[in-house]
Design a protein that fits this description.
There is one protein chain. By secondary structure, the protein is of the alpha/beta class. The protein folds into two domains: 2-15 and 82-134 and 147-269, 3-Layer(aba) Sandwich (Rossmann fold), CATH 3.40.50; 20-77, no CATH class. The chain contains ten helices and seven strands. The chain has helices spanning 19-27, 32-46, 50-64, 71-77, 87-100, 115-119, 156-164, 201-209, 223-234, 251-269; strands at 2-8, 103-114, 129-137, 143-148, 191-195, 213-218, 240-243. A seven-stranded mixed β-sheet has the order 4-3-2-1-5-6-7, with helices on both faces. Strand 2 (103-114), helix 6 (115-119) and strand 3 form a beta-alpha-beta unit. Helix 2 crosses helix 3. The longest helix has 19 residues, at 251-269. The radius of gyration is 19 Å and the shape is globular.
């Protein structure tokens, strides 16, 4: 059976706003706006990566508030994440549609967020892999350093990992660059990337330019997000834009099904 890879950003693509941090900020007694302002200023001052900066600053904030930043704490912060309309039953529905057309659909997250928080969400089991930022934990189980950092451009490496089915051994820097035959790799045409904005542009453009499909979704309650999505489309970075409504019969649902139909016709002729 042919495979199709669906790859998603998380915040503002599947979840409404930066939902994964909401509980974390509350438990750390921190105002989100002031945290991000401080993080951006500090990273600008030190010329450091903003993702690396925020992961480190969360560790510092936890210590300041005497909070044990362990895996269980982070997973628990993801329990109450809410999602856009239709997300929670999207995966089973689109999987069933794919099977009817002869495809096994595999779902992946590629996010600059925190992996452990996403693993606590109601949809975590729907993904074959979640590629995101991770902490290293000491013998007492507390976060003491960072084991994986995923920023806006390094997100693209996970597209190549998915293409080559190299989903583990992330510390191996040689395996990912080993040349493989076309038969051993997932075609780009069998990939769909879902994102919401500028931080997804590198992934969107790679997938689209290589013959796959990229969709920029937007929150209909935020007009600026729609305008930005339309700019990304007119700039040639994506194939389509759609409201972040994953329910059956929505524009996004119909577009994805149409894309699957085209792939099915292609393989039927070949």
């Amino acid at each position: 059976m042919k495979k199709i890879a669906f790859m998603y950003d998380f915040d503002e693509t599947l979840s409404k706003g930066e939902m994964q941090y909401k509980e974390l900020f509350q438990r750390l007694n921190q105002d989100p706006e002031s945290f991000w302002v401080h993080n951006d200023e500090k990273c600008l001052e030190e010329n450091s990566d903003v993702v690396l900066g925020y992961m480190y600053n969360f560790m510092q904030l936890a210590r300041k508030n005497n909070v044990r930043l362990n895996r269980e704490f982070l997973i628990d912060c993801g329990r109450n994440i809410t999602f856009f309309k239709g997300v929670e039953d999207w995966f089973d529905r689109i999987n069933e549609y794919g099977l009817k057309k002869g495809f096994l659909i595999e779902h992946y997250i590629i996010s600059c967020g925190i992996k452990e928080i996403m693993e606590g969400s109601s949809i975590a089991s729907k993904f074959k892999r979640i590629f995101a930022n991770c902490y290293s934990f000491n013998d007492e189980g507390e976060a003491y350093w960072l084991s994986q950092i995923v920023n806006f451009t390094t997100k693209t490496q996970y597209i190549f990992r998915i293409k080559k089915d190299l989903l583990d051994n992330l510390s191996d820097i040689k395996e990912i660059n080993v040349k493989r035959s076309k038969e051993e790799q997932l075609p780009y045409a069998n990939m769909i990337y879902f994102g919401d904005g500028d931080t997804d542009i590198p992934c969107m453009k790679v997938v689209k330019d290589k013959g796959g499909h990229s969709v920029c979704v937007f929150d209909s309650d935020r007009p600026k997000k729609r305008l930005n999505a339309m700019k990304i489309l007119t700039d040639g970075r994506v194939n389509a834009v759609a409201e972040a409504d994953y329910s059956e019969g929505s524009a996004l649902d119909l577009y994805v099904k149409k894309t699957i139909d085209k792939l099915a016709k292609f393989y039927a002729k070949s």
